[in-house]
Amino acid sequence: MSMSNGSPNYTGASSTTMGVPYQTRIPATGNGDILDEWPNSTINVSLISSVFGVTYCTHWGPVNHGYFQLANTFFFLSYLAPNGLYGILYLRCTLLVGCAFFALWGWAVLCSFDAFLWNANFVAINFIHVCILLYHLRPIKFTKEVEEVYQALFRPLKVTRHQFKKVLDCMKMIRQLKYQEVYAQEKVTKVDSLSLVLSGKLVVSQNGRALHIVFPHQFLDSPEWFGVSTDEYFQVSVTAMEDSRVLLWHRDKLKLSIITDQFLQAVFDHILGRDVVKKLMQMPVLASASLSEVSETMSAANSHNGHLASVDDADDKPMLIVKKTGDGPGITALINRQLQDHSEHAPLIRRVCHERSLEMVNLALHNPVS
Q1: How far is CA 54 from CA 13, 20, 35, 40, 58, in A?
Q2: pLDDT tens-digit series, residues 40-73
């Protein structure tokens, strides 16, 4: 230690902390004065480093390249990702771009192969995740008939298109039924499907007596969904009253598909339970009506509003000749009411024709043809 012109001379000394050498300068006077030119001043930090195990930068380097800044900007944006599937997609995209800039920085600026290799791997991993997320978020489209089913029954219950696609994957077929074709025969046909009417009308009967009529977007075998196994037989017969199309699901496959999804289970129980209630409300009125009476009444009503008959096939289908009985007005009232319910959203011209056909039904019932 030496003094020159009243100023302390510093002797250079080096210390090693955690294996890293630090250049320190110790004031010769011992008065504890430290230079104020931080962070470029050289001070003794060996004690702090040894006590707290931290390093101390005595000289700051220049600001890093623009690639480095862009990479960290995208990493910062990744922390702002919202919740949900789209938020995860946003997170993966920002991480992918940030890692890409880091890989470019390591390759072109830092010239460090390991920095480039690590970040290139991160880019590949995030790219795979982005592709998977885009696949799950792809738009799902259905045919016109299936789209109408989704909009009418499932969308109001907050079922997503992906969930409905899962249900639709259990579909067996879409069956075309001709006029008066039997879909299910009593004690002959097994209950191995869940059937939804897409278009047309069918009548459900037992021992030749009509029980209820099934309209579009209603199920043919909703009562059998609850507590009936697939090796049992229908206790009713189902006959098409006009050309119809029916969507059939594999019953067991569908139940296995939704057994792990409590939400879809609740949706199907709700839709099918409501369908059963509608059928039960029809049964008291149609309980004493014969299948032929209901079929003829519906045939006549449909022949005038374009649902059934045309000029070409008018000779092949029966005209409206219904004998007046005590149950006739009740049957007609029920059919009229149901036809009106399903015609509320029809065009004006169809509704006018429909009203005229109903008048003809009432006229035929009160003035039977001998």
Answers
A1: 19, 11, 21, 18, 13
A2: 444 555 565 666 666 777 788 888 999 999 999 9
* Top-confidence residue, 300 or 238: 238
Closest CA to 193 of 247, 245, 141: 247
Which whole-number Å values give the CA distances from 327 to 85, 212, 332, in the listed order? 58, 15, 9
Q: Is the pTM of this model over 0.85?
A: no
Bridge partners of 11, per DSSP, are 26
User: Residue 140 CB: number of other CB atoms within 10 A?
Assistant: 12
- The one-letter code for the residue type at 197 is V
The CA-atom distances, in angstroms, between 31 and each of 7, 222, 256, 300, 320 are: 11, 96, 84, 116, 121
**SS3 at position 247:** strand
pLDDT in tens, 110-126: 999 999 999 999 999 99
* Residue of 140, 137, 125, 161 lying closest to 89 (CA atoms): 137
320 pLDDT tier (thresholds 50, 70, 90): very low
Q: Which amino acid is it at 255? A: K
Crossing angle between the packed helical segments 328-341 and 348-366, to the nearest 10 degrees: 180
Q: How many CA atoms lie within 13 A of 249 on its CB side?
A: 27
- Dist. CA 234–CA 214, nearest whole Å: 16
